[in-house]
What does this fold into?
Amino acid sequence: MSYTEQANKRYHCRRLTCFIRLADYLMVNTMHILAVNSVAKLLAVLQDQIQHTPTHAVIHSWADTDAAGDGGGATEDSDRKATEPTVEAVHLLPMFVSELMLETHALTYEPSVDVFQECVSEIISRFQETVLSLVVLVTDSYFDAFTQPMINSKQSLQFAFDSSPSSSSSRQRVTRAPLRASASSTERMRVWTWTRSEIRITEWRSFSESLKKYHREHKEALAIKQKRHLGLLLVDTTLLKGKLLPSPLRCLERKIDAIIAEAQDAQFKLEFIPSATTEFVNSLTFLEEIQERMEWLDEQTETVSQMYKLIDSYSVPSPPEDFAVYATLKPSVTGVRNAIDKAVGEKDANVDKFCVHLQRDITDLNKEVKRVKQQAQNNQIMDINAERPKVRLLLDEVQVSIDELQNQAFQYKSFQKNFKVEVTKYEALEELSAEVKLKQLLWDSLEEWDALQAGWMECKFEELDPETLSAQVNKYAKCVNQLEKGLPPNSVVPRLKEHVEGMSGEGQTLGDSEAVIEASLLEEPQTLASLEGLMYLSNIFSSTVSGQASGEASLETILKKVEDSWKTTEFPVLSHRESKDLFILGGTDDIQVLLDDSTINMATVASSRYVGPIKTRVDEWQRQLNLFSQTLEEWLTCQRNWLYLESIFSAPDIQRQLPAEAKMFLQVDKSWKEIMRKVNRLPNALRAATQPGLLEIFQNNNALLDQIQKCLEAYLESKRVIFPRFYFLSNDELLEILAQTRNPQAVQPHLRKCFDAIARLEFALLPPPPPGAMTTQPADGEQEKVYSNDILAMVSPEGEKVGLAKGLKARGNVEDWLGKVEEAMFSSSAASARPPSLTTKVKNERSGWWLDTLTGGVNYQSVDVVQRPGRLSGGDHDHFMALQDFEYVNIDRLNALAALVRGQLPTLHRNIITALITVDVHARDIVTDLVARKVDSSSNFEWQRQLRYYWDLDLDNCVARMALSTYIYGYEYLGACPRLVITPLTDRCYLCLMGALQLDLGGAPAGPAGTGKTETTKDLAKALSIQCVVFNCSDGLDYKMMGKFFSGLAQSGAWCCFDEFNRIDIEVLSVIAQQLITIRNAKMAKLSRFMFEGREIKLVMTCAAFITMNPGYAGRTELPDNLKALFRPIAMMVPNYALIAEVILYSEGFESSKTLARKMTQMYKLCSEQLSQQDHYDFGMRAVKSVLVMAGSLKRENPHLSEDVVLIRALRDSNLPKFLTDDAALFGGIMSDLFPGVSIPEHDYGVLQTTILESLVKRNLQPLPSMTHKVIQLYETMIVRHGVMLVGPTGGGKTTVYSILSDTLDTLWQAGHGKHNPFYLPVKTYVLNPKSVTMGELYGEVNILTLEWRDGLMALSVRAACNDTSDDHKWIVSDGPVDALWIENMNTVLDDNKMLCLANSERIKLTPSIHMVFEVQDLSVASPATVSRCGMVYIDSNELKWMPYVQTWITGLAKKVIYHSP
It folds into this structure.
């Protein structure tokens, strides 16, 4: 074909192909449109049906009509009107039928919505499959000749369906249409559902209620239409209606059948006449059971009877056969009762018959025992020549018979016990059983022995274990002995005995000879049988030689074991202070254990009679171990002393002041470092500790260290004698000061322990250097402050500053210039108390001069009361009238001060004026009382018994007088400290204590916790301006420490109040009595110096010792009589709560203080009487004080609130945290009764609460309101109490509460909210478990042997917190049970003293930023003294429940699953 023809053909083929494709397109397009239109038509029909679905209101009308209708014609008409579709929709019948099914917890459709959707989707898919079955022309092979080049990448019908948006949208809407219809109908069908209660037949009254409900439900279920038109669906409720017809009769049928069946069975068993022993037993047992069962049967019968009466009264349709069955119920029960009565009457006769039958059975059993015994005495059993299999078979048969007889005997015994008949003993059976067991043991032993002996004889000699062989032989020897005693003479036992004894002798010879037989004597391995045949064992050695060799071998083994253990034992060497060339020994406990074991082993070897050949080696080892023991003891002693002194003599100031001791320590230090370097190179313990001369070196070093320590003690004592207040510091604290004598600032942290109210001294600043001078600039760019030695003023803890005399310098020894500071303090205080200055003060307006002239002493209380003796004595004026005038003046001045305190004042000024008001209130009360009693003479006792101040012109000094007691004013600087509210109880205590001081005795206030024993003693010291050192006693105190304390008191003239004095051991108390008698005798003799504890010391007459005790508490000791005689006892029982509350409220600025105080006191009384008795509840004085402190702060923060609201909120915030849920409700009722009509607005915690929620979420915890509330309660409690206890069972969230509060405060501080609230600061926690360690490990203890003090965990934690000078919160958390053993040492820590007292006389003063937090389950064993000192927050795990744990676990589960997924 030419090219032109080919081109022409291609052209026509292309044209033909285009035509075929056009035909295909027309067919595909037509089929696609057909399918899309079909789906759209189906959708339109479904939507039309859905639009005619009845509305919600119509369905509700169906339910109402169904419930009210009873099948009448009128009801049917109304129902038809309400339920039939509208006229427009008559022709629209439902397309699908769906049954409404009742499941356990829901209504469902059958078929379900999912099945419905699948069916509709299947219909649409069939549309598509039908259309897609059309084959296009372009793919027909008939046209290949024309279309082959042109059929690539052409459209298909499937592609048209997939890419058509209208087709896809219609298909989705069609499939969703049934879902909308069913959802709508399901929602509207919910009005047909109700809760169907399960009928539980427990008693007929509840059944009556169930029957009423049954009738109501029955009527409602009958009214349900079986078919409903719901637009698209025809809902069929036939099955639902069947299920909704409750039938209580089913339960009745089952119950009646059970009762009748049981009655018939019981009657049959009771009427059955037994003929055998077992039947008698069963009959009598059943009689007892049915008698107990009858009461229950009667109850059930009565219940069913009442139910059938109710069924009859309600006309419940029931089949006649049910009533027929019910008619047989009572006769059946009556028949059972008659049968029981008859059986009870025949019981004694049956028991007699039983005994006759049983005796017959026992006789038969004894006959059978005799028969079996004859079988067991067969001669073959005891014949050695008998065939063993036959013997074994015979013994097995006999044993089976014996087991059966024993089971019968046991059953007969149980029958006799049950019916209280004499129990028969079957001695013949027991003897037979024992005899057969011995015969079985004989033949078993014989077979086992033969097998063992055969194995031994074939075993190689070197593989034999003589110990195992000997143990087996001994075992069978005991067995032979037992068989000889228990069996009659026979031929089997002698055979076994012969074999055992023969092997016993060979085993002994084997054991003795094994150690000396050499393998070289044997050409080849020999067995025991071959050696026995050669008579090798019996002739090679005698038993004496073999025993000697065996003993020596065992001793060699012990010696070698000791040698090997010491070859590998090394000293644990540690670097000291991370130094590369300074080492110390680590723990040597393992070495000490090894030394003890080795010493015992060597002593055992040396005492053995076989030690001869190795005696020299043993003696050498004993000498070395003895030397090692001595050296190690001296070594550790040297290390302890060196470690203690090394830190002291590393200070240049100590070296300068103790040159001789420093030289001696340098010698020891050089020797120590050289020895430890050698040990570090060669750490083998035995070699290092047994070096020649090492023991002597350590002994010499220890002698030098002991001498150094004695010199150091004498040096410290010399410092304390110069400045006696150093006695109130521990050795370590004093050494810390002396090590920095050139730095006066080093004394600042310890001033609070030497002076009551001097927190620090203010030093003058050096002038800044000239601009060109070289200076060191800190990193922050600020000029570093450089202080001179000039002391300008003393500063109190409250911030009050009092100038000191000019020219006072911190120069020279620290004890010297501190003594000058003490003198300057006395001078400054005395200058403000002289009469000229007082006269100036009185002339001025009193409400104005206090800001300028009151410098923290108690001088101001003498301004008016003390300066007015002329009103009661002297002159011709009317004394009583003058006193009345002065009463009005006092009231006016007090009102003026109260007006001042209600205004805005700085903290320092507020503290001063609050203390002034407290004292002035007492002064006003004194004057009022004097006026009321018409006192007009200074000699009247009502005036004399008051604490009065006079300026004695002869002494030129201020003196305090009370009754017949006179005391020189002390002029100790007291700062701006608060004063105690003086009540009549306080006055009596003052009077008693002042009388004791006049007689050179001490005072002993005693009483329950919270009655003011310690505080009254301290306040009297403030009133007399005397330093009062409070010390919390414990059972760890010894007489040496107390002697040092008393020496300090005598030389400084201070007072000491020993809190919980009766906790000291009775042995120590006896010595304390002698120490106090020595001091009292010196005071009575008016000596200036006296001998005390072997040394002569000075005596300041103002010194005194006071003790406070809680009688009857756990761990208390009865004081010796000679010690009791040195103290005047004072009973401190019930404080005057109302007066104390009134004065404190008044000083805080409350105008209606008297009314509020009375209400608050009544509230606490009602709480203690009406609330539940819990171990952590306390309604004593300390609880009252915390409420008053909170009320004062709330009043200053919210001056616009009424005083009632302020006090109620303080009471609520202080007390609610500790209450249980039920008690909190009672507390609210008490508050509403005392403050009727007062509503408390909820406090908005704002950013605090939101931050708490954020902190919970950050820790992946649930932000529950209860947990947030507890965190806020802890926050509120911490503001008013520095000791807080989180009380509650494990799992309640105690740790979480304080952790969340810590996070919250840290977050608020970082966000800058600390400017608005000073409590928002970061928190540092120190957590420990006090019950996991001993008392010594918790608080510290003195080593009895070395007298070295070792700090405890609590002491270390508190000291670390106190040394942290930042303002951050420091929380010391004690997570563990609280008991009277360890918590009592914290009494002075938890009360207002805030002082941790240790047994080495160290007192650590807590800073305001420290809080003591305790996590406890309960306080069942804590004393009231502990409970009253702490704020309580009760955390109940019942509020948390289990759901938050699950939610938190689920929250964290997602991360874990994602993390572990592949």
